[in-house]
Specification:
The chain is mainly alpha-helical. Helix content is 49%, strand content 4%. It has a two-stranded antiparallel sheet with strand order 1-2. The chain is elongated. This is Putative HTH-type transcriptional regulator YdcR. It holds the Pfam family GntR.
Length: 220
């Protein structure tokens, strides 16, 4: 077994061994193949036995390796290998696209997130508001409050809505930790498995993730 290990590399040795073994299994091994013993592999790679033990334990946890007491470590069975590979590839494409929308190259406005450019932020105004709130803070600022959110904030929003001719009681308003949580609650409440959802692009990346997770049976 030839694994590329860099003792002075940036990645921890256990990570190198784990990833090396996983790649070797993917390319060369079929289910049921016996893997080198801890002593043999540590000698071949010139690493401590503890490194090899932890690498094997990680692969067992990830489902790549099966431990047989008194016998050693074997490549685990992967009956759904083709389907899993397709799923991993599809998720990699989705996650890659989502992550790219959060990258800040300094030249574009990120439409897929809720962050404002630093030059748009009135930091002094925010700092003053925070000082005012903490100076007159009630116990609700530090303790658990109603699940609906701050009564004072809901009352303020109710007044703003009234000015827009929207008749809403404060008890009908629910505060969330952000747009992602709000979308998650809406999707969980309104959608059912098999429903069709249109999501605009560019847009909020977490909207697609909320729809996928909520309607795929992950609600429990």
């Amino acid at each position: 077994m030839q694994l590329q290990i860099e003792p002075d590399g940036d990645r921890p040795l256990v990570q190198q061994v784990t990833e090396g073994l996983r790649e070797w299994i993917e390319r060369h091994a079929s289910s049921g193949v016996r893997l080198p013993s801890i002593r043999r592999l540590s000698s071949e790679l010139n690493v401590s036995r503890n490194i090899v033990i932890e690498a094997y334990e990680r692969l067992v946890a990830l489902g790549w390796v099966r431990s047989r007491p008194g016998s050693g470590f074997y490549v685990a069975e992967r009956p759904m290998e083709a389907d899993e590979q397709g799923a991993r590839s599809g998720m990699a494409d989705v996650s890659g696209e989502m992550w790219n929308q959060f990258q800040d190259d300094g030249n574009s406005l990120r439409l897929g997130c809720g962050w404002l450019p630093s030059e748009w932020r009135e930091e002094e105004v925010f700092a003053h508001a925070v000082r005012q709130v903490t100076r007159h803070a009630s116990s609700g600022l530090f303790d658990y409050s109603t699940p609906l959110g701050s009564p004072e904030l809901r009352a303020l929003i109710q007044e703003r809505l009234r000015r827009l001719a929207i008749d809403a009681d404060a008890n009908q308003l629910l505060m969330t930790g952000g747009a992602s949580q709000a979308l998650d609650i809406i999707v969980r409440w309104l959608l059912r498995p098999g429903d069709t959802v249109f999501v605009e692009t560019p847009g909020i990346t977490t909207c697609s993730a909320c729809c996928i997770c909520s309607v795929s049976g992950s609600l429990g």
